[in-house]
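Reproducibility note. Readers wishing to regenerate the assembly model reported in the main text can use the exact inputs given here. Chain order matters: entities are listed in the order in which they were concatenated for prediction.
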Amino acid sequence: MKKGIALITVLAFVLILSLLMVPLYVSVLGMTSTLRSIQVLPAKHEAFAAGLNVARTLIVDAQTPTTSTSIDLAQGPIVVTASLSRSLESDLSLQINCKGTVTPVEKMRLCSAVNYWDVTVTFKDAYTLTGTAVQYVMFQPDKDYVYLLDFKEGRK
Amino acid sequence: MRRNMKGFTLMEVVIAFVIVAVLAAGTLPALSNINRQSFQTEIDLNLPSVGQAALNGQVSATSLYQELADTTTTGAFELSDGLTKYSATVSSKGYSYAIDTLYADVGVGLGSLGAGSPFEEAGTASDEDTSTVPVIITPTVVEPTLGIGTLLDSKVCSNKGNQNGDDHTFGPGYVQINSKGDGFIEYGLTFQVQSSASDDNYVIVAIPGNTDLEGDCDQDCKGVAHSFVAFINKKQKSAIDNKVCKPKSNENGIAKLLSTSTSLTATEYGQGNGGRYYFPDGTATASIIYKYKFVAKIEHKLYWSMHFVIKFMPGTPPENQWVRIYIPGSSGEVTTEIPAVIGEETATTTTYGSAEIYAPYDAPIGLIAWDSITFDVSENASVTVKVGTDSMTDPYVFHATGPAKPMKISLRQYNLPPEDLSITFYIAPIDKTEPATINNAQVFYWTAAPSSP
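Running the prediction on these inputs yields the following structure tokens for the assembly.
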């Protein structure tokens, strides 16, 4: 009888110890996961920053209402897509037609416009950054202003 | 007496301590390295941040990690489309991490301005060219000396493209075929030459210089349906009647182009000396008369016919859609004026040319930033403004059309260097018959506030 009670006591003791180990295990798992994500943060942030710069060049050089490119970085590939969503004063076709005006200044465009673009930057096919870019079409193509607005990660 | 044996002997305790000491000794190497390993783990964990910091030039903030890491390298690579790639590779104890970023040299953000106040007026720029250029030729008097012709018959040849039909009217020494406003003439005329002894019978064709070939006559005019005149001559009038609207290139029509008032020569197409003479491919803004002078080698063929197929350029006003055939009268002379295209008066017009005005502007003392340029633009003006400074190789260009008073170009957003400003105005009239001017050009800038006494 005494042996039986002793066995149950030992089992209970082991069980209690096991239960006490669960939060410890969960904590260790959480710490590991946090450390990994912290380590990825610089790569992701730099990829997104690079993607936004790519978006600027894409929009300035856009010949069609939708444009996209993919660039390999050391930390992984980024895919940048920009699509024209709205235009004021002009439209993209007019803007394109305006290129090549020769006189009195080469490449001058005789039109102005404000174009709104939807921009998506995807990093490693896993992380996505979306937002809006506003393009002020100037009279010289390389003088366009592109402002990036309201970018958020993971927004559909 | 019974001896109580509870507890451990000293020997047992010593043995136990020895055993524990031996076991503990085994962990000493691991314990001695735990600090180092922990630190290395921390370094490895932070290598991405070190790389990112290196990319962004934040060396001082992460100097500790940078010193502990084995290598840190950065490099710049020019990609296409104005992108520059910066790379950093960081490694420590066999663990390596690489990170890249891209920078675009376009679409930079707004700059900021300091406080300042006054402005100074720049010069006034204007341009006007009032040179007078005649655009319609003076009526011409033509006086041929031979021949007598009588119009015997006329015929509208086709309804194809000839929606309103054609008709003809007479004037002194000429017969005029009118398109009646549909831009198309297909008409046949038959007349008699009384004297067949000479081959110097003339006919003069006057037509506004706005005929449309709708084709290419560089090699030959095969396949070009218009605009031309074809000649036929026969001994009998009846032989002409069924040919006038459908002459073939090998018909025995004989005519020769002697002269023309334009450098654009008529192209001949057809066999021998017959066939068609094409009019030049004109322009819609016709303002010149083309005069053709043919001689028909009549010989003994007293009846001859002219077949006109003419399409006028789109936009040709109805009053310019005609062709005149001057037939010498009984005196052997044509003494009439071949008219100008519109009316019979010489007209002049005033044109205004474009101008380039260079306006350098010295940087004032205490200049903080250039603010804006304003100027007044008249109606009908197309103005292009090029703005730059001494150190800028690629100036900014702006374009404006009038009327506007004042027109303002804001320079603040471009953060121009605070140095001498170069402004070039290019002015051109939209309608060259009306003037175009700009004036009251002013430059606004920010300067440091004057110091208090």
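We highlight two features of this model. Residues 45-153 of chain A form one domain. Chain A touches chain B through 39 residues (CB under 8 Å).
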